[in-house]
Amino acid sequence: MTERVAIIGGGKIGEALLAGLIGSGKPVKDLVVAERSAERSAELVADYGIRVTSDIADAVEGARVVVIAVKPDAVDGVLQALSVTDDDGELERITVTLVAGIPTSRYEAALPAGSPVVRVMPNTPMLVNEAMSAISPGRYASEEQVALTVRLMEAVGKVTVVPEKLMDAVTAISGSGPAYFFLMVEAMIDAGVALGLTRPLASELAVQTVKGAGVLLSESGLSPVELRAAVTSPAGTTAAALKEFERAGLRHAVNEATAACAEISAKTARRVEVEGSSQGVQVGAETASEQQ
Ligand SMILES: NC(=O)C1=CN([C@@H]2O[C@H](COP(=O)(O)OP(=O)(O)OC[C@H]3O[C@@H](n4cnc5c(N)ncnc54)[C@H](O)[C@@H]3O)[C@@H](O)[C@H]2O)C=CC1
Ligand SMILES: O=C(O)[C@@H]1CCC=N1
C-alpha cells in the first residue's frame, strides 16, 4: 500500500508493525511514529531511520492511516489529542487500533462524528511477517477502508475479518497466543537441561521443533490430531509423554488460561474508565503501568 501511515505508540507492537512494514517494502518516508518516550524515540530513529515525533498532531498530518498502538489506559489521552487535529476531509483518515479490549464505539464517541475506525488484534510474529491479525470494522468504516486495513496487515502476515464481539476470544487465542508457546519452549529447554542436555543444545532442539511443528500445521493440510497420531507409536515414547500431559491437565490449563485472558480483555474498557475517572485522564503523561 502506498498511503502514508502514522503509528501512535512506538513500543513493542508499534515497532513490530513498523519493522514488518519496512521489511515488506514500505518506504520509510511513508511512515511516521508518535512516541512520547525520548529514549524509545532515539532507539527507533537509530534502528529504522524513520521520523519520530512526540507530537501526535504533527505525526498524523497528511496520514491516511493512523494506527493506535498504546496501552489501553493511554487510549483516551490519544483520542483527546486526535480529536483536535485537522482531518483533511479529502484524505478520509482511518483510525486503526491495535489496542486490546477497547471497543470501536469508544473511539467513535471521542473522534469527530462518523469517523471510520477499524479494530485489529495482531500478534508479535508481525516482526517476521508471520502475524495473525483479526480485523473488525467499526460502524462507520466502509468496505474500501476495511480492505485498506486488510492490505496494511497483510503486509506483515495473515489476516481474517471477524465480528467485533469475537475480539476477546481472538485475543485469548492469537493475540496472547505467542506467549503460551514461548512458555512451553522455555519449559522444554529447562526439561532438556534436567535430562542432561546442554542449554544451547536443548534450546536448538526445542526452537527448531516448535518451528517445524508450526510449518507442518500450517502447510501439511493435516489436523493437529492427525499430526499428533503420526508421531505417536503404540506403547512408544510419545504416548508415555502425552499421557503425562493429560494427567497433569494440559487441556484444562489451556481452557482456564484462555478464559482468563478473554475475561481480562472483556473487562478492559470498564477498568480503564474506572481508573481514568479516579486519576483524571492525563494527556501525554506516562502511567505507572506503561513504565513496567
Ligand atoms: N504486545 C503484544 O503482543 C500485543 C499488544 N497489543 C496491544 O498493543 C498495544 C501496545 O502494546 P505494547 O506495544 O506491548 O506496549 P508498550 O508499552 O511496549 O508500547 C506502548 C508505547 O506507547 C507509547 N505511548 C503511550 N502514550 C503515548 C502518547 N500519548 N503518545 C505517543 N506515544 C505514547 C509509550 O511510550 C510506549 O512506548 C496495547 O494496547 C496492547 O493491548 C495487541 C496485540 C499484541
Ligand atoms: O498482554 C496484553 O495485554 C497484550 C494484548 C494481546 C497481547 N498482549
TrEMBL record:
The enzyme's E.C. designation: 1.5.1.2
Gene3D superfamilies referenced in this protein's UniProt entry, alphabetically: NAD(P)-binding Rossmann-like Domain, ProC C-terminal domain-like
Source taxon at top rank: Bacteria
Residues in Pyrroline-5-carboxylate reductase dimerisation domain copies: 164-266
Subcellular location field: Cytoplasm
Molecular functions (GO terms): pyrroline-5-carboxylate reductase activity
UniProt keyword Ribonucleoprotein, yes or no: no
EC class (word): oxidoreductase
Domain Pyrroline-5-carboxylate reductase catalytic N-terminal: 4-86
GO cellular component, one term: cytoplasm
A Pfam family reported for this protein in Swiss-Prot or TrEMBL: P5CR_dimer
Binding site for NADP(+): A69, V70, K71, P72
GO-annotated biological processes: L-proline biosynthetic process
First-listed, main subcellular location of the protein, grouped into a coarse class: cytoplasm
Keyword line: Amino-acid biosynthesis, Cytoplasm, NADP, Oxidoreductase, Proline biosynthesis
InterPro entries in the cross-refs: 6-PGluconate_DH-like_C_sf, NAD(P)-bd_dom_sf, P5C_Rdtase_cat_N, P5CR-like_CS, P5CR_dimer, Pyrroline-COOH_reductase
Job of this protein: Catalyzes the reduction of 1-pyrroline-5-carboxylate (PCA) to L-proline.
NCBIfam families from the UniProt entry: proC
Name the UniProt record assigns to this protein: Pyrroline-5-carboxylate reductase
Upper lineage: Bacteria, Bacillati, Actinomycetota, Actinomycetes, Mycobacteriales
The gene coding this protein: proC
